[in-house]
Amino acid sequence: MSDLEHLIEEALRPTGTAPPPPSRDLFARVLESVADDRARRGRRRRIAGLWLAGVAASITLVLTLTPQSNGVLLMPWWILELATTLALVAIAVWLGPFIKRFGRAYAADVFHDNPSTGKSYIVLTDIVYYLIFTAYICFTVNFAPTLAWENVFSGLVTPQQLQGEVFRLGGILLIIGALHGVNIVLMPVLGRLFSLNRRVDHH
Prior knowledge:
203 residues, mainly alpha, 5 helices, 76% helix, 2% strand
């Protein structure tokens, strides 16, 4: 401990009191924190590796299934449709836990008077999240070329289809972002109402 730290400790310590004894489990807690950090970093590396492997496998599969004519790829419409649907599923699988990880602390702060309600709220929002994602994928998936794509006869990917698939990706991100924005604003109001109801019940 440096001289500056000693001076700060002496200034903050009440007059006539002895310095507090060191915590007996301090070393064990430090080791546990280091182990948790290593495990967290390992999980992140595994997830990143799985994502890279999935992207590489998807690109390889697309290039394998796509026929060529004089070195030009002639992608059938269903390959792009399948790739977009898989991308939507991957976004749902990745985005859900990502939002939940940061939402736990926010919910714990909002529902600090009744933590069990906060946990239940997080679980219910997760269910709503996956229901919206599943419904969106079911509503927007195509099993045959549409007239708007202008590829009914050729069966190949056109700029119109590409624009439609990008619209699908942007649409779900916009919906989820808007719903979570409303949730962020609404959650403190609900937390306040639950706290007031709890106080009224106790009185």
